[in-house]
Structures are given as structure tokens and as C-alpha cells.
């Protein structure tokens, strides 16, 4: 039996930050004004970004004519309503109580802001730069071996709410209703590209195929590549680890070039885990299966990724990014419900890869490129150990 709206929201104050639950008489305008005139920490906690970043975003949306003041609600309050909802995962009823507006008003401004952010989102997704990422250039574990690498690609699952008749395709292999989202990440924890909305049951490689073949497609610069994990094939533009070789929990004594390559590959590819974790930390609504139309749920993924990039660009040292910047963080799988488990294929992914038109010669070239990287890493590793042994002996 479904609960009524009244029953669902009896304890709405438990979901509102503690300092707000004690002031039910506060009107939305006063609350927003107090936060924006208060400390940066208060703005970060309530609206998920620094005050200066918040005001700059308001100005951008206003200047472009995407949001406008109304008689009752100014642009800063409209954006505050949206950020408060996505940053605290509150039901509309609870937000009504805090801002003192009707559900229709809250919903209208939420959707207006969502559509405004979607309109400018392409400005926040930038393709890879032509130079070598500093995270590679400045680390002898990765340079010069991965100098042509521009980032990492991976998929994740976000819970969705869909009608009973639509649930079949969205039920993933672990039994959860989800959308399968593919993202290309830079090594400084930004999103180059995001494709949302695929059903949870869709194979990751099919989602990648869609990203490479659609009109607004994932572009890989000539001669460059992204790192992918074992769910994907080693194909032109995407370098996968060697199949069948452990690489997540290697000790410090790899036995051959493939093990050492997979270890270094895993450390670099881990940026996708950290980037998704920072996104989910800032916008918990993504992990809640919000009861919006499916199209809105898909927009929310893209819009929050765009906001993630915007905040990273304006305030790269904000507290959420600092939590996830170190590579040692999240070396294990996401602690959320097991939506993202890797399904190990019975045979190497390369032999099962279908749908993307690469010929045998192109696939063999991609394999040779990976082998060359692995060999160079291994040769230097052996040489360095030999040098250490010589020093010890002498």
C-alpha cells in the first residue's frame, strides 16, 4: 500500500538541515538572503557552492536571458530553490514549508532553472586539451608512457523511477531500476562528455557505441585515447587493461609487463570513481530515484554534471573536491548499493565486441599501441631495479 503525501512528509524536518528546522516561520526570501549574506560555509552547505560562484552563475543565467526576476521571486532565490532540492534531496512538501511557496511554484521554478542549466551545459563540457595532462606529465609512473592519454571513460548507474510498464528494460543485472550513464572524465576531475538515459539493462559497450555514433558524439582527438576498464574492449581511442590479469589489488612486485601495465592503468583510471563520488556527494538527489518524469531524471544527470564542471572551474579547491582529489581515496568500489559491479566476461571483451565498425587492422594496431606502452613501462621498471641492485652491491 502506498502512503499518502501527508504520511510521507510527517517527518520532513528530519530531512532539512538542523539549523533550518527550528525556523518554520522563515520565508524563502529571508532564508536565501540570510544564507547569501552569511558565511561561505553556510552557502556551501545549503546551495552546494561558494557564494561568489553562486552569484556568478546567477549573473550568467540572467545575462543570457534564461532566467528573469518575477514579482515575487528573484533569480537568486529561484537558483537557491533548485540547488537546495538537488543538494539535499528534499521532497517538494518539505521545500514548500521552508520557502513558503506552493508546490506548483516550487515545481515551476525548479524546472525553469533545470532547463536554463541544460541550455548552457554545453559551455561547461569542454573537449580534451592538446597538451599532456599535468597529472601524467608530472608523475614518472605515467610519463612518458601515457602521454597520449586524455582522460578516462566509465559507466555508472543512477536509480530511476519509471512506470510499471517501463520497468523491464531499466532493471539492471543486480535487480535495481537504474539508468546507465557513460562519462568521459579528465584527470582533474571534470567531465568531458556525459551520455545519460540508457536503460539499466543496457550493456556498457552498447552505451559506448551510442556515444560514438550519435550526432552529439564523444570525440577522441586523433592519435589520442581514453582509458577504459575491463567492461570495454581495447579499440582505437580506448585503451583497456589486459583481460584476465589482476590489476585492482596488485602487490608491489608485478611479475610481468601486463601486470605492471594494469596496475598503472588502474591508478589512472581511478579518476572516474573519484569524479563520480564527488558528483554524488554534492548532489545526493542522483542516488534517490526522484519521482520526476524520466526525461527530467535524465536532464538532472546532465545538469548536475555541468554544474560540477562549472564549480570545479570556478573554485577547484572547494571542500567536496578536496575530499576526492587524492588517488588513494576510493581505491575500492563505490560504497553505494551494488549498481556498478563489473561483470567479468567468459572471454576477453575484444572477441565479443560488436557494433562499432573497426576492422581487424585497426584493432590490431590498438593492441600494438597498448603492448608498446606496457613494454616501455616494464623495461624502465627492470632498469631501475637493476640500478638499485648495483648501488646496493657496490
TrEMBL record:
<dbReference type="GO" id="GO:0016787">
    <property type="term" value="F:hydrolase activity"/>
</dbReference>
<dbReference type="GO" id="GO:0005634">
    <property type="term" value="C:nucleus"/>
</dbReference>
<dbReference type="InterPro" id="IPR027806">
    <property type="entry name" value="HARBI1_dom"/>
</dbReference>
<keyword id="KW-0540">Nuclease</keyword>
<keyword id="KW-0479">Metal-binding</keyword>
<dbReference type="GO" id="GO:0004518">
    <property type="term" value="F:nuclease activity"/>
</dbReference>
<feature type="domain" description="DUF8040">
    <location>
        <begin position="27"/>
        <end position="118"/>
    </location>
</feature>
<comment type="similarity">
    <text>Belongs to the HARBI1 family.</text>
</comment>
<dbReference type="Pfam" id="PF26138">
    <property type="entry name" value="DUF8040"/>
</dbReference>
<protein>
    <recommendedName>
        <fullName>DDE Tnp4 domain-containing protein</fullName>
    </recommendedName>
</protein>
<dbReference type="InterPro" id="IPR058353">
    <property type="entry name" value="DUF8040"/>
</dbReference>
<keyword id="KW-0539">Nucleus</keyword>
<dbReference type="InterPro" id="IPR045249">
    <property type="entry name" value="HARBI1-like"/>
</dbReference>
<feature type="domain" description="DDE Tnp4">
    <location>
        <begin position="153"/>
        <end position="309"/>
    </location>
</feature>
<keyword id="KW-0378">Hydrolase</keyword>
<dbReference type="GO" id="GO:0046872">
    <property type="term" value="F:metal ion binding"/>
</dbReference>
<dbReference type="Pfam" id="PF13359">
    <property type="entry name" value="DDE_Tnp_4"/>
</dbReference>
Amino acid at each position: 500500500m502506498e502512503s499518502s503525501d501527508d504520511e510521507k512528509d510527517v517527518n520532513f524536518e528530519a530531512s532539512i538541515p538542523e539549523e533550518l528546522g527550528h525556523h518554520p516561520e522563515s520565508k524563502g526570501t529571508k532564508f536565501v538572503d540570510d544564507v547569501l549574506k552569511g558565511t561561505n560555509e553556510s552557502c556551501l552547505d545549503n546551495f552546494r557552492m561558494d557564494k561568489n560562484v553562486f552569484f556568478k552563475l546567477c549573473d550568467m543565467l540572467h545575462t543570457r536571458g534564461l532566467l528573469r526576476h518575477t514579482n515575487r521571486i528573484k533569480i537568486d532565490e529561484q537558483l537557491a530553490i533548485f540547488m537546495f532540492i538537488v543538494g539535499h534531496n528534499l521532497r517538494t512538501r518539505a521545500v514548500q514549508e521552508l520557502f513558503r511557496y506552493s508546490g506548483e511554484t516550487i515545481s515551476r521554478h525548479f524546472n525553469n532553472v533545470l532547463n536554463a542549466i541544460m541550455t548552457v551545459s554545453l559551455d561547461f563540457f569542454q573537449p580534451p586539451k592538446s597538451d599532456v595532462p599535468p597529472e601524467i606529465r608530472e608523475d614518472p609512473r605515467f610519463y612518458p608512457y601515457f602521454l597520449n592519454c586524455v582522460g578516462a571513460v566509465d559507466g555508472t548507474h543512477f536509480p530511476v523511477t519509471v512506470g510499471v510498464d517501463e520497468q523491464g528494460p531499466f532493471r539492471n543485472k543486480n535487480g535495481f531500476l537504474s539508468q546507465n550513464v557513460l562519462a568521459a572524465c579528465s584527470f582533474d576531475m571534470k567531465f568531458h562528455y556525459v551520455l545519460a538515459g540508457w536503460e539499466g539493462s543496457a550493456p556498457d559497450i552498447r552505451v559506448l557505441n551510442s556515444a560514438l555514433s550519435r550526432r552529439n558524439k564523444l570525440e577522441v582527438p586523433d592519435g589520442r585515447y581514453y582509458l577504459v576498464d575491463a567492461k570495454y574492449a581495447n579499440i582505437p581511442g580506448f585503451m583497456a587493461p589486459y583481460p584476465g590479469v589482476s590489476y585492482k589489488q596488485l602487490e608491489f612486485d608485478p611479475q610481468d609487463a601486463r601486470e605492471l601495465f594494469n596496475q598503472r592503468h588502474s591508478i589512472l583510471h581511478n579518476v572516474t570513481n573519484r569524479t563520480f563520488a564527488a558528483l554524488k556527494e554534492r548532489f545526493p538527489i542522483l542516488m534517490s530515484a526522484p519521482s520526476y518524469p524520466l526525461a527530467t531524471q535524465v536532464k538532472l544527470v546532465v545538469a548536475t554534471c555541468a554544474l560540477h564542471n562549472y564549480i570545479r572551474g570556478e573554485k577547484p579547491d572547494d571542500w567536496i573536491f578536496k575530499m576526492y582529489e587524492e588517488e588513494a581515496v576510493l581505491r575500492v568500489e563505490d560504497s553505494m548499493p551494488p549498481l556498478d559491479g563489473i561483470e567479468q566476461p567468459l572471454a576477453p571483451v575484444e572477441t565479443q565486441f560488436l557494433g562499432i565498425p573497426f576492422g581487424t587492422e585497426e584493432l590490431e594496431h590498438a593492441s600494438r599501441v597498448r603492448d608498446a606502452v606496457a613494454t616501455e613501462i616494464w623495461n624502465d621498471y627492470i632498469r631501475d631495479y637493476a640500478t638499485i641492485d648495483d648501488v646496493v652491491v657496490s
